Amino acid sequence: MHLIIAEKNIAARRIAEILAGADSVSSEKKGPKVRTGKDNGVNTYRFDDTITLGLRGHVVEIDFEPGYSNWRSEINTPRTLIDAKTIKKPTAKNIVSLIKKISKTATLVTIATDYDREGELIGKEAFEIVRSTNKDVPVHRARFSAITPQEITTAFEDPAGIDFDLAAAGEARQIIDLLWGASLTRFISIAAKRGGKSILSVGRVQSPTLAMIVDREKEIEAFVPEPYWMLSVDSEKDGTPVTARHTTDRFQDKREAVQAEHNTAAPLVVTSVKEGTRTDRAPAPFDTTSFIVAAARLHFSAANAMRIAEDLYMNGYVSYPRTDNTVYPKSLDLDEILKELKKTSLSKAVQWTQANRRKEPTHGKKSSTDHPPIHPAGAAKKEALTDDQWKIYELIVRRFLATLSPDARWATLKYLFDAGTETYTATGSRLTEAGYREVYTYSEAKDTILPEMQVGNHLPILAINNEEKFTTPPPRYSQSKLIQQMEELGLGTKSTRHEVIGKLISRRYVEGTPVRPTLVGRGVVEAMENHNVPITNPEMTRTIEQHMEEIKEANLTRDEVISESQTMLRHVFDALEANEDQIGREIMDRNDEERIIGKCPVCGHDLMIRQTKGMSQFIGCTGYPNCTFNIGLPSAMWGTAIREDKVCEIHNLNYVRLIRKGARPWEIGCPLCNHISSNHEALMMMPSSDEEMIARLHASHIYSVYEVANLEPERLTKALGTDKATVACLREEAQGVLEILRKRSELKKFVRKHVVPRRGRSPAKVAAALVEAGVGDMGGLAAMTPEALTQMHLSATEAETLLNETRAVHNRAALREYGVPAVSLKKYFEAGITTPADFCALHPAYLSIITGIKPETAWKHATAVCTGMGVTPPKKVTTKMVETGRNELLDISGLGESMLERLYRAGVIDTTGLKDADAKKLGKATGIPTEKIRAFQDACK
DNA sequence: GCAAGGTC
C-alpha cells in the first residue's frame, strides 16, 4: 500500500484524482476512479493500491514539558521557560492515529506537503509519525508548486527525500517564538498584575506590528502643520476653462508667494507645448497581500476578504488564496482557464481578453515555490454565491483577465505659460487605449482634457488664486496598509498577517479603523523599548530569517541557533527582573489613565471606570471613600466599559461604550446622561416625586433612587430645602421603589435564564412585555395563565415550561420566607411536596413519614406556612400520637404499610379518624375500595 | 492563561 500525505484535504483529493487519471491508459475512459472514504473521521482517497489523505496543516504543536503551567509558581518563574524542555503534542489526534495505523502496513510513503519551509516541517512531522510505527518503510518527498497534472506527475515520477535541514530551520523558529513569547508574556502580565482575559501578550510578530502603530501615532501627535502657499490662475480658451499652476509648486514663504502674485500679469502667453504618451501597465497577478489591498478598495476588511476567498477556494472557484507568488508557473494552462470562465456572466470581458490577449502574462517581483498566484479555478454562477462572495470572485476573475490584457495608454499634454515675470503650467491626459482597463474596472480612468493651443497664443487671466494650505500628518494605518508594511518588514506570513490585527484588538492594544493604539498598547511597547527588549524590533525577525537560512544550508545547527537565542533572552531577563516593579507601575498607570473619564462634579477628583470582581461595573470617584459619587453602568455581561474620545458637552465627561466579543459595541454615550435617563423612571415611581423635585436632586448630583434611600438625610434636606419629616417619608418611598425594582430585576434575570432567544423574540422583550402587563415579580408570573403568556411572544409549550419553572422557584422562595429551613425544604422537595398549598392540605403526619422529618417539626412547618398563607393551622401533632395511631391501624388485619401511607395522605392517622371518616369519600381519596374501608371501620369497632 | 504557524 502506497500512502500519500498532503498538507490539506483538498490537496489530497486533487492529487489523488490527477494520479489516478494519469495511471489510466486511455483518457477517454473518464469517471470516478478515485474512491472517497472516511476513516477515523479523516477523508481518504483510494485508487489502485494507493491511499491519499490530507493533514490539517500542523497536526502537532510544541509546548513546554509538564510542570510549567502555573504562571505564578515560585520555582518555575517566567525566566525558567528560557531553558524549559519542549515537547510535541498532537493537535489533530484522529489524523495522527490514522497515519500510525496505515503506516504499519504501508510499503511506500510519499510526503506531498506544500513546497515551502513550513510545508517541509509539516512533512517532517508526518514523517516522524510514520516512523513511530514503521522503522523501515521508504519515505519519499514530492515537491510541486501547483497542483496541475503536469507538476504532480513529474513530482511523483521523480521524488526526492525530506530536507531535514529546512525542517530544522522551521523548528528553530517555532521554539524561539515560544520561548520568547511565553516567557515575556508571563513576565509582563505578572508585572502589571494582569491575568485571565486581560493578559498582556508579547510576540515576535505582534509586538513589532504594535510598535509600528504606536510609532505612527507618536508621529501624528508630534506633527506641527507647516503653512505653504499655492498659486494658480484661472483662464479660458475659446470658452473652455483652463487652470494653470505656478511652476513653483509650493511656496514655503508667504512673502515670496505674494511677490509672485504681484508679478503675475495678463496675458498668459503659451511658451511651450509638449505632447507625449504614458504607458499604464496592466497589474501583476494577485498574491495574498495585493489581493487584500484590492479587496480593501471594495470595502472588505482583511480578515473578511480572506474568509470569503477561503470559502471560494473550498468550493473550487478560485485557487489557494494564501500565496506569496506573483508569477504564474509555466504549468498553469491560462487559456484553458479563460475558456472555462466563458461560462460565467463575465463572458463578455473574457471574450475581450481572448481577442486582445497579451503574449506573456504580466508578472510581479516575487516568484516562490509554494502556490501559484491567486486565480480563478472554476466558473461560478452568480446565483450560487452570496453578494460578497460574488464581488470577491469577480475581483479575482477581473484581475486574472487584466494580467492577460494589454497595457493601457494615455496621451499626455503639457503647456508652459508666461504671465508677467512668472511661469505657469497646465497638464492634461487622455486615455487612448483602455487596454486592461476594459476588464479591470475598479478605478476610473479620468481624462483631464485641455483645449488645443499653440506657442504664442494669448489667454486672458480671469483670476489669480493664492491659497494658504497646511501640511498634514501621515495618516493612521489602514488594515491593508498595515499588512503591506508588515510584508515589507518580513513580519508574519501570507497566512497570518491578517490575523495579527485581530489579535492586537482582542488584547485591547489597538482600536478603531484606521487603527490607533490604546494607552496600554503604548505602555507595553514603551516598556519593551525602555528596557531593551529587542522583540518590538523587526530586526529580530530578520536575524531569525538569516539563521534559518544558515540552518537550511547546514552551516549552523538548530540547537546552536536556539542556544544563542536563549543566551540573549537571559540577558533580557536580567534587565527586566531588575526593573519589574517600575515596568508594572508604568503599565498600570497607563491603564488607569485610560479609565479616567473626567472630573467628579461633587468633589473635583478624577472619575474612573471600575469593575468589581463580579459582573458589575460603574464609574466611581477616585476621592472615594471621602466622596461617594458614582454613576451606574449596565452589567459587564453586556460588555466591558471602555472610554471613548468624544466628550459630553453638558457634563464634560468622556463617552463610554461596552465591548463584547462577537457582539456589536453598545454605545452608552455620556455615562451621566445615560445614568440620568435610566434612573428617571425609577425616581418618578416614588409617589411624592415630581419633575421639580428631581431637578433639585440633580442639581445636588443625586440621580438615583438608591441614593435617595441611602444618603444621609441631612444631604437630602439640604438638596430639597424641606424638613426632616418629608425627607424621612421620601426615604421610605425610595426603599419601597428599590424593593419593587429588586423584584423586577429578579424576574428579568429569571426570564433571561429560561427563555431561549430567537429572532424577534429576545428574553428582554418578553420581560418588558411582562412588566408592561403589570407583572413585576416572580409571584405575579407564577400566578399567570399559560394563555396570557402566549400573548408575549411565547409558544404554548414554552409558556408551560416557563410557568412550571417559575412556580418551582417561586414556591421555594415563598416557603423559605414562611420559615421552612433550607435543609428541610430539600427533603420536602425530594418527596414531591413543593407548594405552600401542599403544606396546608396535607396532614403533618403524612409530611413527616414521607420525609423522615419528626412529626413535631413537620407540624411546626405546616403551621408556619398556613399562618403565612392565612389558612387555619393544623392541630398539634406529636411523635407519640403518630406512633400510637400507627400501631392501632396496623393492628387491623389486612391493613399494611402501603395502605397506611395512603390513609395518612388523606389525613387519617389513627382509628378514631378512620371510624369518623366517610367511607365513600375516603375511598375516593385513597383509592382503596369502599367495602374494604368499611371492613376496616368495622374492625375498629 | 502564553507565540507563530499551518488549516477549517
Automatic annotation (TrEMBL):
Alphabetical list of Gene3D superfamilies matching this protein: 3.40.50.140, 5' to 3' exonuclease, C-terminal subdomain (1.10.150.20), Bacterial Topoisomerase I, domain 1 (3.30.65.10), Topoisomerase I, domain 2 (1.10.460.10), Topoisomerase I, domain 3 (2.70.20.10), Topoisomerase I, domain 4 (1.10.290.10)
Region annotation (Interaction with DNA) ranges: 201-206
Residue span(s) of domain Toprim: 1-149
UniProt keyword list: DNA-binding, Isomerase, Magnesium, Metal-binding, Repeat, Topoisomerase, Zinc, Zinc-finger
Entry-linked Pfam families: HHH_5 (PF14520), Topoisom_bac (PF01131), Toprim (PF01751), Zn_ribbon_Top1 (PF01396)
Catalytic residues of the enzyme: Y320 (o-(5'-phospho-dna)-tyrosine intermediate)
UniProt xrefs under CDD domains: TOP1Ac, TOPRIM_TopoIA_TopoIII
InterPro entries recorded: Topo_IA, Topo_IA_2, Topo_IA_AS, Topo_IA_cen, Topo_IA_cen_sub1, Topo_IA_cen_sub2, Topo_IA_cen_sub3, Topo_IA_core_domain
Topo IA-type catalytic domain span: 163-573
Entry coiled-coil feature ranges: none
Catalytic activity, EC: 5.6.2.1
GO cellular component: chromosome
Region Disordered: start-end pairs: 353-382
MF term (GO), any: DNA topoisomerase type I (single strand cut, ATP-independent) activity
Cofactor: Mg(2+)
Biased composition (Basic and acidic residues): 357-373
Site (Interaction with DNA): H58, R173, D177, R322, R507
Annotated family: Belongs to the type IA topoisomerase family.
Protein task: Releases the supercoiling and torsional tension of DNA, which is introduced during the DNA replication and transcription, by transiently cleaving and rejoining one strand of the DNA duplex. Introduces a single-strand break via transesterification at a target site in duplex DNA. The scissile phosphodiester is attacked by the catalytic tyrosine of the enzyme, resulting in the formation of a DNA-(5'-phosphotyrosyl)-enzyme intermediate and the expulsion of a 3'-OH DNA strand. The free DNA strand then undergoes passage around the unbroken strand, thus removing DNA supercoils.
NCBIfam families assigned to the protein according to its UniProt record, in alphabetical order: PRK07220.1 (NF005555), PRK14973.1 (NF011532)
HAMAP family xrefs: Topoisom_1_prok
Protein's UniProt name: DNA topoisomerase 1
